[in-house]
């Protein structure tokens, strides 16, 4: 797989009019193939393995918030990075998830070719599936290199996306509490 990717990167380098045999580029196809595999390693992960049964019984009945989880993803339109942070809140229903697992879930979906809206939904649905929570809210704020380095070249705009499930969707007070926790905590 890496060999095949590496071959394609060599062709890309040639297509750009560069000489893939010059010293600085000699190992670049292999490096680039490895880097790209790293950046999309989420395809090789599964929710079950990642969670590793780290779901614990708890009678907490307040919103749990995990804020400012940094994320690095690749837009599926240009294969350029988008970079930002993710906030996840949930209202447990007898079970809580190991803290680190939220960041692992974010990475599993972020490390793929993505659009931000789908990424947000996939994270929310995974958290709901794993915890059986009464409600889940996910917000992502990100900057897209395809809008900054090329195209419209806007350096200061960012995109916010959110997905609210269960009580976060139905109950305005729960949703407001989540939003104010994200803003103020
Ligand atoms: N909704 C959404 N759009 C995205 C995301 N990442 C990139 N895009 C957009 O995908 C669109 C692709 O538009 P096209 O017109 O097909 O491609 P393009 O000619 O390269 O577009 P420009 O970026 O406007 O130059 C652009 O508007 C991008 O800004 C994302 O995560 N969500
Ligand atoms: Zn893009």
Shape: elongated
Strand content: 25-35%
Order of helices and strands: HHHEEEEHEHEHEHH
Radius of gyration: 20 Å
| Main sheet makeup | 5 strands, mixed
Query: Helicity level, as a percent range?
Result: 40-55%
Binding site for Zn(2+): 75, 78, 146
GO molecular function: GTP cyclohydrolase I activity
EC number: 3.5.4.16
Pfam family, one: GTP_cyclohydroI
Concise summary:
It comes from Larsenimonas suaedae. By secondary structure, the protein is an alpha+beta fold. It has helices at about 1-15, 30-40, 45-50, 100-110, 115-130, 145-150, 165-170, 170-185; strands at about 55, 65-75, 80-90, 95, 115, 135-145, 160-165.
Could you explain how this protein is built, in words?
The chain has 185 residues and is α+β, with helices and mostly antiparallel strands. It has eight helices and seven strands; from the N terminus they run H-H-H-E-E-E-E-H-E-H-E-H-E-H-H. The strands form two sheets. The protein has a five-stranded mixed β-sheet with strand order 5-2-3-6-7, sandwiched between helices. Strand 2 (64-75) and strand 3 (81-91) form a beta hairpin. The model has no long low-confidence stretch (mean pLDDT 97). Zinc ion binds at residues 75, 77-78, 80, 144, 146.
